Amino acid sequence: MKGVTMKDTMNGSPESGQRGTPTRVSVGSVVFLSLAAASLCLCFTSVLGQEPDPAIGDVFSLPDCPILDTPFDDRTRVFTDKGRELRVCCMECKERYYQESFFVMSKIDEQLVAQQKPFYPVTTCIVDDKPFADKDAINHIFRNRLFRLCGDKCRESLEKQPAKFFGKLDAAVVEKQKPNYPLMKCVVSGKTLGKDALDHVVANQLVRLASLEQLDKFNRTPGKYLEQVRKAAEKERSRMQ
Ligand SMILES: [Zn+2]
Ligand SMILES: [Zn+2]
Asked: Which ligand is nearest to the Cα of residue 128, counting in written order?
């Protein structure tokens, strides 16, 4: 088991662990920027001995605090535990998380499966490409992302090579969802999606942003924006019927 980090930063810091975009920074600069952000908001406790946040993995994509079920806003507490980003709405919830982390983590994983399964792009195991019947697939949440796998061996392979399989799953999501993407405009800025548009995948959902500049704002409340894209897609589907 990985150690628990003591760091607690405000939302939207560069530690969010974006994948597959040129914004990804080296661990060294992440630590430096986190330090800067942490000392600015005076909530810095200890960075020494802290593990770097996983460079590969999704931001915490649920729209509500897993403890109180209240929607996230700008006061969201972002932290890492067991190699993944987590968010709660306030310091009290963070304390409660550590008191009942097994229970809360199970609830989070259940909600992430429910959130992501409808968007899952393939009916094969992402590791060995074997087809499986829906009921035989293992729903495995790894660094906040749902992977549907055929067995424990493939789970081990995934965890050994996260970059490879996050990349493979991201590509499958883009291929499946881009042709039917429901919005002409950036969900964050409202700007028209042009040639600089960024195809960003989080929680097995494609989100198209006008440019890289919108990523920071997106990462402050990703769950909210994912829901907006999902609702737009539902509206589009009912219009087509
Ligand atoms: Zn809360
Ligand atoms: Zn497999």
From this structure: 2
